[in-house]
Amino acid sequence: MVTEPIAIDSEGYPLNTGSMPVSIVNENRIAKLRHHAGSLLWPALGFIVFTSAAGFAAGYFPDAWMQIALWSIYGILVIAFVIVPWLRWLASSITITSHRVVLAQGLLVRSRREILLMRVHDVTLRRSAGQMLFGSGDILLGVGAEQPVRIHAVPRPNLVLAALTDLVHASSPRSR
């Protein structure tokens, strides 16, 4: 029994080469990004405030049960407002290949969205004042009549915009 080799994409998923064009098999990963780390500013400030408040309040609670209650509440707040956002940031990624953009996210339930560059007709950069301050921005990918796909808090957005524009132009059937 002879088996043919299975083509693997940049994320390690098998490609169904029987139904896809042959050019997708030769896909190259251009960049793998995470959302800008500036989105972790509020969790970091929350950790500082929670730790300072708990340390200050510990001196006012002389009983052991009060200390246990205080540090239990502190632990719950740190888990909910510091660790979970950090893990959520760590579990999301943006992969740009020569043929598609892959958005992956999720802690317990992993979701993955793929946007083929040949479907993209418009690439837009949108930046708020805070994003300009931190050096990030939102990339909007126009894909037909649907709502644009928003990639939130991309680091170095001008560089990503230029790369995506070049890739969209190269994958467009009109440019061939």
Protein architecture, described:
This protein folds into two domains: 22-35 and 92-175, Roll (PH-domain like), CATH 2.30.29; 40-88. Strands 1-2-3-4 form a four-stranded antiparallel sheet. A three-stranded antiparallel sheet has the order 5-6-7. The chain is elongated and about 75 Å long. The chain is of the alpha+beta class and 176 residues long. Helix 1 (41-58) packs antiparallel against helix 2 (64-90). The protein starts with 28 loop residues before the first strand and ends in a 5-residue tail after the last helix. Helix content is 38%, strand content 23%.
Name the descriptors.
2 domains; 176 residues; four-stranded antiparallel sheet; three-stranded antiparallel sheet; alpha+beta; PH-domain like
